[in-house]
UniProtKB/TrEMBL annotation, chain A:
GO terms for cellular component: cytosol. It holds the Pfam family CCG. It comes from Thiorhodococcus mannitoliphagus. Residues 7-88, 135-219 form the Cysteine-rich domain. This is (Fe-S)-binding protein. GO terms for molecular function: oxidoreductase activity. Coiled coil: none annotated. InterPro entries: Cys_rich_dom.
Automatic annotation (TrEMBL), chain B:
This is Iron-sulfur cluster-binding protein. Residues 299-328 form the 4Fe-4S ferredoxin-type domain. InterPro entries: 4Fe4S_Fe-S-bd (IPR017896), 4Fe4S_Fe_S_CS (IPR017900), FTHF_cligase-like_sf (IPR024185), Helical_ferredxn (IPR009051), LUD_dom (IPR003741), LutB/LldF (IPR004452), LutB_C (IPR024569), NagB/RpiA_transferase-like (IPR037171). PANTHER family: LACTATE UTILIZATION PROTEIN B. Keywords: 4Fe-4S, Electron transport, Iron, Iron-sulfur, Metal-binding, Repeat, Transport. One of its GO terms (molecular function) is metal ion binding. One of its GO terms (biological process) is lactate metabolic process. The keyword 4Fe-4S applies. NCBIfam families: LutB/LldF family L-lactate oxidation iron-sulfur protein. Pfam families: Fer4_8 (PF13183), LUD_dom (PF02589), LutB_C (PF11870).
Length: 247, 465
């Protein structure tokens, strides 16, 4: 993908409800790099919750709306590897054999995860205006394994020269969110989240960033309940906060 | 809903010592596997090759099984077909009875666990003697394997020392691994000498030569298959491969993925009973080929990938759920990610369907599977089958679940309804404060923003054309 003139932004339902600042920061970063951003108001959710729960008809109904809302030829930037993975890898499968299959495939091919887009497509330059800071990073399983975009998140953080990035023990292990998993198997999920939050707390970093809000909500909520001093932030917020201000 | 799985998982999570043992062991196995595959390109090439070999075998399964039977028979191996566990147990008992056996020595076999052979034989007055060190520990402790390669991995050295001390009071107490192993060996040697029938599993059965390949590290597999007069091999029908040359890539994938070994200490290639001019080996070799639901799995083009499995256990070694609840938390013969896709298919979704939910779909299993089984994709498929079954379920839980998803889709498939829904939720921020349920037990409630990204984007002029 070469640098486009304009992109569509798919905010994700979790950012919409839980952390809209992350979506705004992501769009500002893209705009600052000289690319126009449009946020189609007709979007809602990628449909992954229902898809992963086995409710494919319901997932298709919701996914079809995103296909409508994100029509065009522009790349679709998504500030979540999990939702980007759903649209990129699972939409073609979900719509296979239906009249929407070509449109689903077209959208899938235009979807790009935010860090991947900033790092590889825009090769964004980041001038760090912030004070020295230790930051822990959690790469989501979708970023690390499904989408292979964890490297891009790491590469973006490396461009912030006053930041020291640390990874917790057992960094590659899932935080235990897993969407409905957290509700269906709460005991196992809690054990995983507690281990993850403790490992991050042990890094002594005051801030945790990730490119997925699901992990942040899970780890952040667990850390807060456990009384750890840990602020969670979407990576876009950190990047914008430290580089976006004065230009 | 508090299910059996949740109860078992909660119990497993409460056993701190077991959890620590499993975590330590799994970390060790992960490191060993990583060290065994220093060359990523070679690993990926091998995985492609392993997948292709297993796919090829499964594509031609009926023909290969016939060829295997023919070639085994020509080699003097008697082949038996077992539709299910009962049939397999019956065949094995018949062979034992025909030879007047009252005990059998056993090499490690997960299929024998699958068919519940030990309990069956005990009920019929035949003593099964486990000779694999891990299996022996499990048998003495009257437990089930918690891992398919390392069955006693949940136990630490001290537990094993105490267990041996109780069962072998004549031997001096020791917590030293070599001494414990030597102890087991002394006890086992006597049993090997005295027992006339041996039973083992099979890692791969080669169709073109009628060869049974069995790998192991302790020599008990070789003794179980060569010292007794009769050797009974039991395996699932999916373990067949077409050609002898297929073994080299599969074995190196298997041992490196499982324990990080380039090769196991023993590689047994069993190609028939003792020949007239030979001095040792069994007089009779039997092969029991078990279906037990495998044909049904084979019939589905997507789920068939389950049968590619070569039982290396790398998926469970890397699984964040397995490492926390261990094999006993699953409550099935095959635990971990492979168990979560295999057991619901073998036993039916009605009985084991929840196992398909016992995953965050993190993909760690698929990333290491030596034959590239897309475990998360198959879990998704099984969840779909379960949801489809749930649509016809009259139970209150199923009714509630499907209606919640219907309501969710009704809101999220309409921009207008979604906007009203978001307006309501964001204006009721205090809703989050009263959140209860399983999420809130160990976490603070998720934050709810005062204004949605939809609002903020509109305000910034990002939604105008």
């Amino acid at each position: 993908m070469s640098k486009p003139e304009r992109v569509l932004f798919f905010g994700t339902c979790l950012v919409d409800l839980n952390n809209p600042e992350a979506g705004l920061a992501a769009m500002r970063l893209i705009q600052k790099a000289g690319v126009q951003v449009r946020f189609p108001q007709g979007q809602t959710c990628c449909g992954q919750p229902a898809y992963n729960a086995g409710y494919r008809d319901e997932a298709r109904r919701v996914a079809r709306l995103q296909i409508e809302a994100l029509q065009g030829s522009e790349p679709v930037v998504v500030p979540s590897a999990s939702c980007a993975g759903m649209m990129r890898n699972h939409y073609p499968r979900l719509f296979e054999g239906t009249p929407d299959a070509p449109r689903a495939k077209d959208l899938a091919n235009r979807v790009v995860e935010l860090c991947d887009f900033l790092d590889r497509v825009l090769a964004i330059e980041l001038a760090d205006h912030g004070p020295p800071l230790r930051v822990a990073v959690h790469h989501s399983c979708s970023a690390r394994r499904e989408m292979g975009v964890a490297d891009s998140a790491a590469a973006l953080l490396r461009r912030l020269e006053n930041i020291t990035v640390v990874e917790p023990d057992h960094a590659e292990e899932c935080c235990g969110f897993g969407g409905t998993f957290a509700l269906k198997e709460p005991e196992i999920s809690a054990a995983m989240a507690t281990d993850k939050a403790s490992a991050i707390a042990a890094t002594a970093a005051p801030i945790l960033v990730s490119q997925d809000c699901g992990c942040l909500m899970n780890i952040g909520g667990t850390a807060e309940k456990a009384g750890f001093e840990l602020k969670t932030m979407h990576i876009a917020e950190l990047l914008w906060e430290r580089t976006g201000k004065d230009v | 809903m508090t299910t059996e799985l949740r109860v078992r998982a909660a119990q497993a999570l409460g056993r701190d010592r077991v959890r620590a043992n499993i975590r330590r062991a799994m970390d060790g196995l992960i490191d060993k596997r990583r060290a065994a595959f220093p060359d990523t390109e070679e690993l990926e090439r091998l995985r492609d090759q392993g997948k292709a070999i297993r796919d090829h075998a499964l594509a031609k399964l009926p023909a290969l099984l016939e060829q295997l039977e023919q070639n085994c028979t020509a080699n003097g191996i008697r082949v038996h077909w077992a539709q299910d566990a009962d049939a397999a147990n019956g065949i094995i008992l018949d062979i034992i009875r025909r030879h007047g056996g009252t005990a059998i020595i056993k090499g490690k076999s997960m299929v024998s666990e699958e068919i519940g052979l030990n309990r069956f034989l005990e009920e019929k007055g035949v003593e099964p003697i486990e000779t694999d060190l891990g299996e022996l520990i499990i048998q003495l402790a009257q437990e089930h394997p918690s891992h398919i390669v390392a069955p006693a991995v949940h136990k630490d050295r001290r537990e094993i020392a105490e267990l041996f001390n109780r069962h072998y009071p004549d031997e001096p107490y020791s917590e030293d691994i070599e001494r414990l192993t030597a102890m087991a060996r002394r006890v086992m040697r006597e049993r090997f000498k005295a027992t006339k029938i041996g039973l083992s599993g099979v890692n791969f059965a080669v169709a073109e030569t009628g060869t049974l390949c069995l790998i192991e590290n302790e020599g008990n597999g070789r003794l179980s298959t060569t010292a007794p007069d009769v050797h009974i091999a039991v395996t699932g029908i999916e373990k067949v491969v077409a050609r002898l040359e297929h073994l080299a890539p599969l074995l190196t994938l298997l041992t490196r993925s499982a324990t990080g070994q380039p090769i196991t200490t023993y590689v047994n290639m069993i190609s028939g009973p003792r020949k007239p001019e030979e001095l040792d080996g069994p007089h009779e070799v039997h092969l029991v080929l078990l279906d037990n639901g495998r044909s049904r799995i084979h019939a589905d083009p997507e789920l068939r990938a389950t049968l590619r499995c070569i039982r290396c256990a790398a998926c469970m070694n890397h699984c964040p759920v397995y490492v926390r609840i261990g094999g006993h938390g699953y409550g099935t013969v095959y635990p971990g990610p492979i168990g979560a896709i295999l057991e619901p298919q073998l036993q039916g979704l009605a009985r084991q369907g929840e196992l398909a939910q016992a995953s965050t779909l993190c993909g760690a299993c698929a990333a290491v599977c030596p034959v590239r089984i897309p475990i998360p994709q198959l879990l998704n498929r099984l969840r779909f089958e379960q949801a489809q079954a749930g649509r016809k379920d009259a139970g209150a839980g199923a009714w509630m679940e499907r209606h919640l998803w219907r309501l969710w889709a009704w809101i999220y498939a309409s921009p207008a309804r979604y906007e009203r829904f978001m307006g309501l939720v964001t204006s009721l921020g205090w809703l989050a404060k009263i959140s209860v349920g399983p999420w809130a037990r160990t976490r603070t409630a998720p934050r709810i923003a005062k204004r949605s990204l939809h609002d903020l984007a509109r305000e910034e002029g990002l939604s105008n054309d």
